[in-house]
């Protein structure tokens, strides 16, 4: 088992989890192994979103190469869980991943290189021309995702895929945007990104390798009306209105930690 990098976490990753006892062990194993190989201190914060299975017990008993904390969020909804997790972070850079780790975590090195270069928001996009997407759900879900993202592009700096569960931020910006987040359901990503944009932040989307994994709690039939209702509220609320001023971003990780980060070429959009 790799020894954790000493010092306070430079990167914290929030993992929202609702009844994820079956998928969480494999997901945490992959995430912790990837983080342990990075040249910086990292940590994981699992937010138990009122689960009725053994999700919390799995996290409490977790023994891995990087610290994993547990936070309880009794307010149901992925947006509520992500908000609680973001507000509980302290690191210069933060992000969130889905418990199934559908996005291959090798993309983390590119994310960190972009964040350390001053990009305030870096998101995975399954619609990026260089992405590799394996089995993106059922046709109805694909059609719904395309339609939804066309409706919200103007709110999220033109990003073509607002719903990929792989998003990373400068920590102060993430915490400020999360504090204003009011959407508790699956449309929360749009509001979160919109709060970043209205603070003057640009969004960089990057290609990902993404695998559809069984067990998602999202249903087009059950959640479409809720998502559209949330979208209407976001469009008429403060998230859609620009505001002067920017959140002060942290110094690059490489400078703060005294260790170089991976560099990349072709950093993506933005």
Describe the protein in words.
- The protein has 270 residues and is of the alpha/beta class.
- It has one domain: Spore Coat Polysaccharide Biosynthesis Protein SpsA, Chain A.
- The chain has nine helices and nine strands.
- The strands form two sheets. The protein has a seven-stranded mixed beta sheet with strand order 3-2-1-4-7-5-8, with helices on both faces. Strands 6-9 form a two-stranded parallel sheet.
- Residues 251-260 and 262-270 have low confidence and may be disordered.
What order do the strands of the largest sheet run in, or round the barrel if closed? 3-2-1-4-7-5-8
- Assess the beta-strand content as a share of residues: 15-25%
Which segments are poorly predicted (pLDDT under 50) over 5 or more consecutive residues?
Answer: 251-260, 262-270
Q: Report the count of strand segments.
A: 9
Organism: Actinomadura miaoliensis
InterPro entries: Glyco_trans_2-like (IPR001173), Nucleotide-diphossugar_trans (IPR029044)
Protein name: Glycosyltransferase family 2 protein
Domain Glycosyltransferase 2-like: 13-151
Features:
about 270 residues, alpha/beta, Spore Coat Polysaccharide Biosynthesis Protein SpsA, Chain A, seven-stranded mixed sheet, about 35% helix
Give a brief description.
The chain has 270 residues and is of the alpha/beta class. It has helices spanning 24-36, 55-60, 78-87, 108-116, 139-152, 171-179, 188-198, 220-236, 253-257; strands at 11-17, 42-48, 68-72, 93-97, 121-125, 132-134, 166-170, 203-207, 209-211.
């Amino acid at each position: 088992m790799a020894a954790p990098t000493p010092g306070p976490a430079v990167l914290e990753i929030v993992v929202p989890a609702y009844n994820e006892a079956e998928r969480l062990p494999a997901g945490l194993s992959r995430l912790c192994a990837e983080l342990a190989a990075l040249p910086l201190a990292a940590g994981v914060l699992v937010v138990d979103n009122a689960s009725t299975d053994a999700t919390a017990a799995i996290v409490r008993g977790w023994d891995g190469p990087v610290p994993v904390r547990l936070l309880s969020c009794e307010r149901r909804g992925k947006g509520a869980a992500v908000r609680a997790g973001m507000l509980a972070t302290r690191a210069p850079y933060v992000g969130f991943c889905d418990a199934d780790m559908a996005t291959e975590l090798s993309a983390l090195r590119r994310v960190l290189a972009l964040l350390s270069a001053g990009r305030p928001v870096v998101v995975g996009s399954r619609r990026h021309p260089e992405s590799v997407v394996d089995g993106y759900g059922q046709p109805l879900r694909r059609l719904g995702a395309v339609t939804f993202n066309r409706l919200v592009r103007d709110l999220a700096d033109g990003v073509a895929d607002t719903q990929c569960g792989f998003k990373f931020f400068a920590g102060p910006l993430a915490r400020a945007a999360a504090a204003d987040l009011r959407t508790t359901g699956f449309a929360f990503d749009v509001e979160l990104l919109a709060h970043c944009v209205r603070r003057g932040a640009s969004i960089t989307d990057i290609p990902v390798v993404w695998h559809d994994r069984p067990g998602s709690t999202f249903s087009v039939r059950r959640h479409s009306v809720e998502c559209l209702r949330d979208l209407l509220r976001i469009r008429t609320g403060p998230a859609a209105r620009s505001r002067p001023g920017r959140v002060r971003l942290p110094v690059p990780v490489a400078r703060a930690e005294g260790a170089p980060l991976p560099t990349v070429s072709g950093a993506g959009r933005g």
